[in-house]
Amino acid sequence: MTNPASQPSASPLNKRVGRFYLTEKLGVGSNGTVFRGHDPVIDRDVAIKILNTIPNAADKKQREQQFINEARAAGRLSHPSIVTIFDASSEGGTTFIAMEFLPGQDLRQMLATGKSFDIIETAIIIQKIADALTVAHANGVIHRDIKPGNIFILPNNHPKVVDFGIARAPNRLIDENRPADVTLFNNNVLGTPNYMSPEQAMGKQVTALTDVYSLGAVMYEMLTGQKPFQSNDIDKLLHQIANKSPKSPSEINSGIPESLSKIVTKAMQKDLTLRYQSTEEMSQALYRFLERDRKLKQKGGRTKAAPERNEKKKEGINSLLLLSGAAVIVAIGAIVISKFVH
User: Fold this and answer.
1) What are phi and psi of 168, to 5 degrees?
2) Cα 235 from Cα 238, distance rounded (Å)
3) Tens of pLDDT along 216-227?
C-alpha cells in the first residue's frame, strides 16, 4: 500500500524497525503511519505501518491488540486481491506491520479526483473483491470496514483489499475488560458510516453479510458517482442506513443496465434474507452479467461481419456469372463463325 488517508510531505529518514529500513513517509491513517521501507534480507521495497503513539496505557494496549488483529486477519489469507502481510511485531516500543508495497492509488482518492469507471470496469473490480472476501470468509475473517479507502487500485486496475484493522477473526485478541465492539462511532458500532451495513448502524452482531452490503455500497458509488446515503450528521446518516432505501443506480443513471442495478440493490438489502447470502453468490451474479455482456459483444461482432461475408459472396457469384456469360458469348460466336465459314 502506498497512499493512506493523507499525504504529508516526505521527510528524510534514518530509522529502522525490526529488520526493515524506513525510506519515506507516505501518509497517516486512522491508527497508524505508513512508510515506504526496504527489506535488506530479500532486497525488496515494502510498506511499513507503524502504530501511532498513544499516551494512555490502556488505549495503547487495545490499539496494539487491534494491530495484531490486522496482521493475523490478513496474514492468514492468500489471494491476488488481498494485500500480502510479511511481518508484524512489537520491538523497542514500536508496533508495526510490514506488507507488500503497492503502486497506484486507493479507490477513495480516485473517486475524489473525478475518476469514473465504466460499468464493465466496475463489475470486474467488484467481482474480484467479492472473490477475495469469499476467501476471507472461508477462513473465518469478516472485514467489517469495506470502503473505497480500503480498496487499493493498481495501475492495471486490479484491486487489493487492505486494512483488516477491525476484522473479526477466530484468533482475534480481545481485551476482556472492554466491550469488543467499542470504536469511533457511538462507542458501539464498527466501520465507516457511509458504507456500513444496517446491522452495523444499529450496533447489532454482524455476519459475513455485512461485507456483502458494504461492497454493494462501494459498487453503488462507483456506478453513480454518489454515496447511497449522505449527511454531515452521523446520527442522521446511521438512521438513513438503518431505515431508508437509496434510489436504484439505474434511476440515477439510465445508462446503467437494469440487471447490474439489481445486483447492487440485492447486495444492499436491509433484510438479511433478501441480501446475497455470501460474497460468492454476489460474485457469481457479476460473472453472469459479464458473460452476457461478452456474448452480446461477440454476437454483435458476428452480426457486423455477416453483411461483409454476404457482400463478398455476392461479388463471387457475380464474378462467376460474368465469366459464365462471357463463355456463352464466346461459344455462340464460335458457332456463328463456323456456320458462316461452311
Assistant:
1) -105, 115
2) 5
3) 999 999 999 999
State how far the Cα of 253 lies from the Cα of 83, in Å rounded to an integer. 33
Question: Any idea which residues carry the catalytic annotation?
Answer: 145
Do the beta carbons of residue 37 and residue 20 sit within 8 Å? yes
Taking the mean position of all CA atoms in its chain, how far away is CA 49?
21
Dist CA 245 CA 228 (whole Å): 8
The residue whose grid cell reads 496474514 is 75
Give the whole-angstrom CA distance, residue 151 versus residue 159.
6
Burial class (CB in 10 A: 0-12, 13-18, 19+), 102: buried
Nearest alpha carbon to residue 197 among 254, 238, 142, 258: 238
- Minimal CA–CA distance to 19: which of 91, 72, 103, 75? 91
Edge-to-edge strand ranges of the sheet holding 105-106: 105-106, 151-153, 159-161
Answer yes or no: pTM beyond 0.90. no
Phi, psi (5° rounding) for residue 284? Answer: -65, -40
Q: How far is CA 134 from CA 163, 193, 198, 277, in A?
A: 16, 23, 21, 11
Q: Which of 73, 86, 83, 117 is nearest to 3 (CA)?
A: 83
**Burial (Cβ within 10 Å: 0-12, 13-18, ≥19) of residue 87:** middle
- Return left, alpha or beta for 52; rule: phi > 0 is left, psi -120 to 50 is alpha, else beta: beta
Residue with cell 527489506: 39
User: Do 35 and 24 form a contact (C-beta atoms < 8 A)?
Assistant: yes
339 annotated binding-site participant: no
The per-residue pLDDT for range 105-140, each reduced to its tens digit, is 999 999 999 999 999 999 999 999 999 999 999 998
Computed from CA positions of residues 64, 70, 73, 74, in that sequence, does the dihedral angle turn out positive or negative? negative
Give the span between the Cα atoms of 103 and 121, in whole angstroms: 19
